[in-house]
Amino acid sequence: MKTSIQLITTLFFTFAFCAGGNAQFFKKLAKKAEKAAQRTVERRVETETSKKTDQALDSVLGTGSERPQIPETQQDQGPSGQQGNTGNGPTPTVDNGGESTPDSGPKTLNVYSKFDFVPGDKLLYFDDFSNDFIGDFPSKWNTNGGGEMVTIDGSSYKWFAINPGSFVVPNTDFNLPEEYTIELDLRFLNLTGQTSSVIEAQFILSENANLGYTQSFALTDLNPVQYIAAGPEIRNKFPGDSDPIRNQMRSDFRKVYKEEMHISIAVNKNRYRFWINETKIFDVPQLIKNPSKINNFKIFMKGLNLDKNERMLISNLKIAEGGVDLRRKLISEGKISTNGILFDSGSANIKPESMGIIRQIYQVLQQDSAIKLKIVGHTDSDGDDQSNLVLSEKRAAAVKNALVSVYGVDSSRLTSDGKGESEPVGDNSTIDGKAQNRRVEFIKQ
Asked: Which of 32, 114, 265, 349 has the smallest number of CB atoms closer than 10 Å to its CB?
């Protein structure tokens, strides 16, 4: 007991001595704390101001996030009662943009009004299979498996049906640039509750055109199985990379997989984005770890049962060099021309996936209320001259109407005209040339 009292007494006097001897130290410490708190407040004010500025810019350039969070769905029971495996990887590596599952059913221009995909402005490759015969393997492709051209009731396209276990590669005479876009139409046929869970429909950016995987690749994998909710998966592989990306969404895409889809891919050096219809599925800043290693596009499919007539079909593949912001080009040069605004064949009906470009035109008009635009339509040479002239006029008018009806642009700021086939920029005897000639121009007045 005596020892404890002595210890307490010693500690008391020691503390009293330190408190007196270090009074100045604590005062200095208090002043430093006060200054640190002041700096913290200043940084917060600066951060909030920066956020407000960014929000103002986003309202003009459309780069903000305006989308609801993806609902995570529980996996359904498979035929044997096992729980479906999502196969999720480390979620922090992938930003899916906060999109919900794409809606099934017919698409309208209003549905696509916030669609932010803009195709590249320089067409590199296009194939709608119009020169291929039904039953043949398409002439502009290569494969280690097989496939054939088919038609579908109610569709005006020819479709390439890819055989299971096949890599298919478009024959191109170029390497993919650092910035580019890829688009295609996709359908799965005769999916049922017994459709295999091992289906893989992969869209691969690859090191070379070999009919297989390479050391460097990045891909999106779709699994249209129907008895579990298996969302799209994204992954990459680059030599020496210690942190590969692999992630699978848990949203339910089963209804979407049963209908025709428009697939859009945008690559801006390291950044990779992937859309199904109007919905951005993936937006990954560093998926392409080494852009110089990614030179080709290929597709791989396995798991569908041909005996049950399950098929995977693609059509209208388009690869275009991108990287030019059409908004800035229109403002600086006073004129842009794009073949990214698509119409139904022989019609002035705008395909909804074209709204990314029309949205950018609206943003320019919104930013500067003094700008007035002339919209000019052009066609390829299919059909007679007069019909093409009328069609080009109707298409230009349809673009004008979309700006007015969807985005509320004052119609007095817009005029429209058509040139038909009279001003070609490509060779009308080739598929690629025709695609270049089907274009819309926007000219500042």
From this structure: 32
Structure tokens that stand for 208 in this block? 């070379």
Q: What is the tens place of the pLDDT at every residue in 90-110? A: 332 344 444 467 777 667 777
The pLDDT tens digits of the residues spanning 298-309 come to 999 999 999 999
3-state secondary structure the chain: CHHHHHHHHHHHHHHHHHHHHCHHHHHHHHHHHHHHHHHHHHHHHHHHHHHHHHHHHHHHHCCCCCCCCCCCCCCCECCCCCECCCCCCCHHHCECCCCCCCCCCCCCCCCCCCCCCCCCCEEEEEECCCCCCCCCCCCCEEECCCEEEECCCCCCCCEEEECCCEEEEECCCCCCCCEEEEEEEEEEECCCCCCCCCCEEEEEEECCCCCCCCCCEEEEEECCCCCCCCCCEEEEECCCCCCCCEEECCCCCHHHHCCCEEEEEEEECCEEEEEECCEEEEEECCCCCCHHHCCEEEEEEECCCHHHCCEEEEEEEEEEECCCCHHHHHHHHCEEEECCCCECCCCCCECHHHHHHHHHHHHHHHHCCCCCEEEEEECCCCCCHHHHHHHHHHHHHHHHHHHHHHHCCCHHHEEEEECCCCCCCCCCCCHHHHHHHCEEEEEEC
- d(Cα 213, Cα 299) in Å, to the nearest integer? 10
Q: How far apart are CA 218 and CA 238, in angstroms?
A: 9
Chain segment 24-44, per-residue pLDDT in tens: 545 555 555 555 544 444 444
Q: What is the rounded CA–CA span in Å between residue 167 and residue 78?
A: 28
272 phi, psi to nearest 5 deg: -130, 130
Residue 82 has pLDDT above 60, yes or no: no
266: nearest Cα among 340, 192, 208: 340
Per the structure block, which two tokens stand in for 135? 């039953």
pLDDT given at position 226 = 92
